Amino acid sequence: MSPAHEGTTLSALTIAQSRLPASSRMLLASAVIGMVTLVYLVTVHLPLRVPRPMTPTAVDRVIGWHAWAIWPYWLLLVIAPAFILAISDRRIFLATLRAYAWSMAANAAIWVLWPTSLARREVPIDLHGATAAAWRLLHFLDGSGNCFPSAHITAPVVAVAGYCAQHPRARAWAWPLAISLFPSVVATGQHYAWDIVGGAGTAAMGLWIARRDLFR
User: CA-CA distance, 158 to 205, in Å (whole number)?
Assistant: First the structure.
C-alpha cells in the first residue's frame, strides 16, 4: 500500500470512529431528554413549595397574547431534539448532551427551590380546529408553574450551539431560526420576558461547563 493510500485509509477510519451512529444518538438523547421531561412534569404538577406569582413586564404587554403563537411555540419545543440528533460527531454530541444536562439541572434546582407561576389565559371558546387542539394539548400537559427559567429557551440554545459547533456555516440560519421563535413563549402566555433571560442564562452556564470538548 502506498503512503498516500495508507494516509487516506487512516483518515477515513478516523472520521468513521469520530462519528456516533444514529441509533446510539437516539438512545442517549431519548434517555437524557426523557429524564428532564419527567422532572419538569413532576415539579410543575407537584411543586414542593407554593409557587411565587410573577408579574408581566412592559415587554410582555407589548408582545401580547396570540392564538397563532401556539405553532411556533410547539416548533421551538421540537427543534431542540432535532438539532441534537443531527450532531453526528461523537465528541460534540456527548459534550452537547452534557451541556444540556447541566443546564437543565440548574433549571430543576430553581424550579424546586424557588418555584414560580403566572396567570395563564384560558383557551378561547370560539377557537376551533387544529389551533384549538394544539392549545388544549398544551394546557393538558403543562401547568402554570416552572416559569423561571424557561426550559423552552434553554434546550434550543444548547442544541443550536452544539449543532453549530459541528457545522459552523449553519450559524447563518440556525440561530436566526431559533431566536425568531423565542417570542412565542411570551405570546402564548407560558412565560414572561425574564424567563427567556433566565433560560438563556442556564444554557450559557451548561455550554461554559462543556466548552473544552464542545468548542475545541
Answer: 10
Helices 171-181 + 151-166 axis angle, to 10: 170
**Under 8 Å between Cβ of 123 and 136:** yes
pLDDT, tens digit, 9 for 90 and up, residues 32-44: 999 999 999 999 9
- Rounded alpha-carbon distances, angstroms, from residue 214 to 89, 96, 103, 206, 209: 10, 7, 14, 11, 9
pTM comes to 0.89
The set of long-range contacts for 53-56, using a CB threshold of 8 Å and a minimum separation of 24, is 53/116, 53/117, 53/118, 53/119, 54/116, 54/117, 54/118, 54/147, 54/148, 54/192, 54/194, 54/195, 55/192, 56/118, 56/192
